[in-house]
Amino acid sequence: RKEVEQDPGPFNVPEGATVAFNCTYSNSASQSFFWYRQDCRKEPKLLMSVYSSGNEDGRFTAQLNRASQYISLLIRDSKLSDSATYLCAVKGGADGLTFGKGTHLIIQP
Amino acid sequence: GAGVSQSPSNKVTEKGKDVELRCDPISGHTALYWYRQSLGQGLEFLIYFQGNSAPDKSGLPSDRFSAERTGGSVSTLTIQRTQQEDSAVYLCASSLSSSGHGQETQYFGPGTRLLVL
Fold first, then answer.
1. Shortest CB distance from B45 goes to which of A42, A45, A97?
2. CA dist., res. A86 & res. A6, Å (int)
3. Chain A to chain B Cβ contacts (< 8 Å)
4. Most buried by CB count within 10 Å: which residue of A22, A33, B20, B81?
5. Residue from the list B46, B91, B105 with its beta carbon closest to the beta carbon of A46
6. How far apart, in Å, are the Cα atoms of B33 and each of A30, A73, B98?
7. Which chain B positions have a beta carbon within 8 Å of A97's beta carbon?
8. How far is A56 from chain B (nearest CA, A)?
9. Which residues of chain B does A44 touch, with a Cβ-Cβ cutoff of 8 Å?
């Protein structure tokens, strides 16, 4: 079983729509959770940390469900510039992140 | 402020040659991480340093890979006797600390694209 799983997509979404991604993780001892955004041929850039209480940053909302071991990302009022690959990342302790393979999002005009 | 920097940005080498990749973390970040991203694959964690110490080297793909960090700052990842399957983007990240709420967020450098012919 893969440690972190994401639907690879692509998700083709019209501009202005709301889109949601889920990510599941297998290690119940995971402590920290993140969403990164990666543009083509660029490095991952932190989008949001994900907290147990859920958190919101402008059009972006992240949720954590520890019981079901998944995290989610909601993008409202999507923009063309939101087109990218969204990477879910999980950290168990004092070591590296375990990444999903990413979900490819395409916002269409 | 200055982010994580890596050099070289691109490296083309011949099979069997050794290569050295460099990472300069964000100033004040004590934790440093190396990842590899192969074409069409996810990011693969290789090794991390807390200060100059690497507690777990089991993520390195083979004994041809080694990494060191001196002075709690710059790190180098060395690949000896490179093989074609080593071709990938090698990414470095740093964080304030390797653990602790809010301190473990990792920021990535632009990566080194390695092509082994």
1. A97
2. 9
3. 55
4. A33
5. B105
6. 18, 25, 9
7. 33, 35, 43, 45, 93, 106
8. 16
9. 43, 91, 108
Q: What's the pLDDT score for residue A94?
A: 65
Q: Quickly list DSSP for B72-102.
A: TS-EEEEESS--GGG-EEEEEEEES-SSSTT
**Nearest residue of B to residue A33 by CA position?**
B105
Show pLDDT as tens, one digit a residue, over chain B (117 residues). 589 999 999 999 999 999 999 999 999 999 999 999 998 788 999 999 999 999 888 899 999 999 999 888 999 999 999 999 999 999 999 999 877 766 788 999 999 999 999
Q: Residue A60: its pLDDT value, please?
A: 97
CB-nearest to A43 from B45, B55, B108 is: B108
- pLDDT over 80 (residue A101): yes
- Give the closest residue to B116 by CA, choosing from B92, B84, B69, B93: B84
In angstroms, rounded to a whole number, what is the distance separating the alpha carbons of residues A59 and A76?
5
Q: Is the CB of residue A87 less than 8 Å from the CB of residue B43? A: yes
CA distance B45 to chain A (A): 6
Cα(B108)–Cα(A11) distance, integer angstroms: 25
